[in-house]
Design a protein that fits this description.
This protein is mainly α. It has one domain. The protein is about 25% helix and about 0% strand. The radius of gyration is 22 Å and the shape is flat. It starts with 13 loop residues before the first helix and ends in a 22-residue tail after the last helix.
Length: about 70
């Protein structure tokens, strides 16, 4: 069975990308957001308290057990 050719570029043209960017709002007002996404200092302060959780480290996950040989 022969596979169909799949194009290797993005599915939209550079003109479409420019139009999407031009239509995007300059300012975001999200009342449910815990910080002002337009204030870089507030964004940095909020994400500075973030903790990376690796697989097996989530508090609701069973701990990873290795097989004993």
């Amino acid at each position: 069975m022969k596979h169909e050719f799949t194009p290797k570029g993005p599915p939209f043209s550079p003109e479409e990308i420019e139009a999407i960017i031009a239509a995007a709002p300059e300012y975001v007002d999200d009342p449910d957001c815990p910080y002002d996404p337009n204030d870089e200092a507030a964004v940095r302060a909020f994400w500075s308290k973030a903790k990376i959780t690796f697989p097996g480290e989530h508090p609701h996950q069973k701990p990873f057990r290795q097989n004993k040989d």
